[in-house]
């Protein structure tokens, strides 16, 4: 349910487990609060995003389990880009942090993640095509000398049509395929296993204004199907 007067979006899931998610937006329509509730309306979890006065630039995100703050992420900027992200626990200690690097077009090309002892743990690297689409994501673990990657394909309109994940030795471990309608709206998200079998499928339907009103999710491994309906005010 979308309530424009309160800048909120509410989603209620009844099966298999009840939960109510309430998303609140600021005046720039950016998310500022995501709260999830149990059946008795007690708080399950919450993420609060704090912005600069422009309601656009994120200062930090604060994460809660129930009513207890568990950790937060702080952001440092340079020339409009995030160049460092700190993961801080409930007592203010930095548990880990990331450093970001960009190309001349301000596209993120590398993120280096360090632990609390300043030891490099993970390196994320991104490759783009001439249209600015990210076509390859590489994940490197220096301490174990392990590398994995994701290859991404696009259609002529720039929409993602395929994501393939590879492990060490360039072995494919999964593939997702995406299909769109004539308006460019996602109508199918198909997840395939390593042997090419369909593991799960999400199907979406939209009204004449492009609002999603139905989502059907099928888990072919567990042989379970879920149907979600959306209402708008």
Verbal overview:
Strand 3 and strand 4 form a beta hairpin. This protein has a 19-stranded antiparallel sheet, with no helix packed on it. The protein starts with a strand and ends with a strand. Helix content is 0%, strand content 64%. The protein has 233 residues and is mainly β. It has no helices and 19 strands. The mean pLDDT is 93.
Write down the overall geometry: globular
* Rg, Å, rounded: 20 Å
Order of helices and strands: EEEEEEEEEEEEEEEEEEE
Distance between the termini: 6 Å
List the helices and strands and how they pair.
Blueprint: E1 2-3, E2 8-13, E3 19-25, E4 31-37, E5 43-51, E6 58-65, E7 68-78, E8 81-89, E9 94-102, E10 108-115, E11 120-128, E12 134-141, E13 146-154, E14 160-167, E15 171-180, E16 186-192, E17 198-206, E18 212-219, E19 224-229
Antiparallel strand pairs: 1-2, 2-3, 3-4, 4-5, 5-6, 6-7, 7-8, 8-9, 9-10, 10-11, 11-12, 12-13, 13-14, 14-15, 15-16, 16-17, 17-18, 18-19
Distinctive features:
0% helix, 233 residues, mainly beta
Describe what is shown at a glance.
The protein has strands at 2-3, 8-13, 19-25, 31-37, 43-51, 58-65, 68-78, 81-89, 94-102, 108-115, 120-128, 134-141, 146-154, 160-167, 171-180, 186-192, 198-206, 212-219, 224-229.
């Amino acid at each position: 349910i979308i309530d424009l007067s309160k800048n909120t979006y509410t989603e209620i899931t009844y099966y298999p487990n009840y939960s109510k998610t309430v998303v609140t937006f600021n005046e720039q329509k950016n998310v500022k609060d995501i709260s999830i509730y149990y059946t008795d309306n007690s708080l399950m979890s919450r993420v609060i995003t704090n912005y600069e006065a422009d309601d656009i630039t994120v200062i930090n995100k604060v994460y809660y389990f129930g009513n207890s703050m568990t950790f937060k992420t702080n952001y440092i900027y340079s020339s409009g880009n995030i160049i460092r992200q700190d993961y801080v626990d409930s007592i203010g200690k930095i548990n880990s942090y990331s450093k970001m690097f960009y190309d001349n077009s301000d596209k993120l090309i590398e993120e280096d993640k360090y632990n609390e002892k300043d030891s490099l743990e993970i390196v994320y690297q991104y490759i783009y095509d001439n249209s600015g689409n990210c076509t390859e994501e590489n994940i490197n673990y220096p301490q174990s000398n392990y590398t994995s990657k994701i290859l991404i394909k696009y259609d002529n309109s720039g929409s993602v049509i395929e994501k393939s994940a590879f492990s060490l030795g360039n072995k494919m471990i999964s593939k997702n395929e995406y299909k769109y309608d004539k308006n460019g709206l996602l109508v199918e998200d198909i997840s395939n296993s390593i042997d090419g079998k369909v593991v799960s499928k999400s199907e979406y339907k939209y009204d004449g204004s492009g609002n999603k009103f139905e989502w059907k999710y099928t888990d072919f491994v567990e042989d379970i199907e879920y149907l979600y309906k959306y209402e708008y005010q």
